[in-house]
Amino acid sequence: xxxxxxxxxxxxxxxxxxxxxxxxxxxxxxxxxxxxxxxxxxxxxxxxxxxxxxxxxxxxxxxxxxxxxxxxxxxxxxxxxxxxxxxxxxxxxxxxxxxxxxxxxxxxxxxxxxxxxxxxxxxxxxxxxxxxxxxxxxxxxxxxxxxxxxxxxxxxxxxxxxxxx
Length: 165
What we know:
Helix content is 56%, strand content 0%. Helix 6 crosses helix 8. The protein is globular and about 50 Å long. It is mainly α.
């Protein structure tokens, strides 16, 4: 259906979820922009962080205009900079670095002990925000399975790389 009408498949999934959780009225176009208070955003982010739902499902359930808005709130809230409305791109200062499975597991355990404060983990462990966020999302979506933090990429030995050239 997406190809037939030249609509992105994610848009159709979002529409289905909105219809399921908000009914037909959720699909009607609103000409006004929705504004959420800082306290409302923080409450929704806390609830989202403790849930196992995807951003798309959570946004549809809670009447948030888009999952992108929710993801931006998560980033701002976890950087302790949540505001009512500040359109901007987040600057990532800390570059990523290689970590072991044991180190990733330790970081995630500490992150959870510190109320899922990504900025704290970035400062303490000198890894990028994206790395910590990605590890936590994998961990959470796997049902808190530590094995989800393993690096499953296949590394070619140098001799195999030379033979493929």
